[in-house]
């Protein structure tokens, strides 16, 4: 913070400094209610509002393996207010006191003054070094045996695959892999060796589709994006959603996504009806956030294996969707986000080949 400005109050050196001040003056309030509902634990979150905060809260709940059955969201003005009805994966209320304390603590830390939502860099494919491992991002044309070939290349370069998450959708495959040096068990730091990894994997991923091949890049620093969010970003940047037009499944199998404008309030209303599944709300909110839309109000309900989601949104520039092209892009991106999740497990190297085969089968059956 800079000095006082002629007695009228503080001036700010950056938006980050001002936002941190607002957070400290208005710390998040989390209330967990296990009495009001016989079927679910109710989590209420009140916080100073900012872009991306809804995704932060949902991401914490997903990482704690909570199932969100209902949610009511409002964030008009400078304050964010949310009510979530959550259960465990077996559909039961959360009664364990340690888990309840974790929920409150993790949400508070996620929204506190020391944590700020930062949209990640939009690398299409890359290798990022952390202290104890490298994160390798792969985006390329899907084909039988691709993951086995990638694993063979890494093994030949004396890299050990610690874990990986792989999504395939239509003709494209995306993966986030964590690898270590075979000899040291730590991250590969030698620049020449990293360059060889980039060259070999880029060549492999190009396959016969040179126009949509992969390019490797190295980024410094230890910060990494949430793996599943990163997979969404990679496929979004790759234009994966555009293939829905060329390879559309039967209409009855597709999620029902509509967008209409509520002109009196300058909102675009996004409505989703589809089969319910794990992490559906995370996937849709993640997509809206990465498309730079702000959710001002939302009503979420999942019942009898069917999901209903209604979002009242504006672009970060404050406008609703003004063109048919913009509306169609949002619909296509949400449809793709709903359809493309085929794996949710981070696995050791020994499971990779079997998991890839399972992913392929699931993707082709979708």
From TrEMBL:
Q: Which GO terms describe its molecular function?
A: amino acid binding
Q: Which UniProt keywords apply?
A: Repeat
Fetch the Gene3D superfamilies from UniProt: 3.30.70.260
* Record's signal peptide: none
UniProt xrefs under InterPro entries:
ACR1-12, ACT-like_dom_sf, ACT_dom
A family per Pfam = ACT
For the ACT domain, which residue ranges apply?
Answer: 42-123, 135-212
- What exactly does this protein do? Binds amino acids.
What is the protein named? ACT domain-containing protein ACR
Organism this protein belongs to: Panicum virgatum (Blackwell switchgrass)
